[in-house]
Specification:
about 65% helix; mainly alpha; single chain; about 200 residues
Amino acid sequence: MANEASIKTVVTKFNKELDTILDFIQQHRGTGKGVYVIYIYDYAVIKTFKDFEELLLNTIVGLISQEAPYIASPAGHKGTKSVKKKDAENLFIGNKYFSFKGPNGLLKQIKTFFPTNHWFISILSDTAYNKTFDVLIPLRNFAAHSSKTAKKNAINAVGFQQLGNSGAWLKVGSRFQNIIDDLKDIAARINAQAKF
């Protein structure tokens, strides 16, 4: 098992990272003024998305590693008894970096390895998370890039006519906390299904 990826360990790390982000917001929000509070939330959404990507990638790698006898690579190669973590990652992303165009793009990638009724696909397909996915990705992109396209996508995602930056929207009420709550729920469901 040393060469296999522990999904439960990945989930634990993800939850700790989210808690650290929330602690960071709590510690700095009270002392921050104006634009600094916005910067806090811009940073928070970038870090949250990065950590969520890591959770997804490492869960996929762990599943490929653990379920190798039952999967086939996109090239149609049947798995062996087990696949080492680095080999599982190579099977999934090859020599590219992990990137997906929203939940549908991610599901399309995953379905090349797992049947449509796989528990991981069921979790990510759950419509309860649509709102979170609909705002998380565009707000992260706008916070990271500030391009016209990123701004337009963020405006469309939140349903506003104007939006100065992601942090300005995220700092209001429980918007950011709601995203965190959904991501933690996804992580809890992954943890409950993972073998180790």
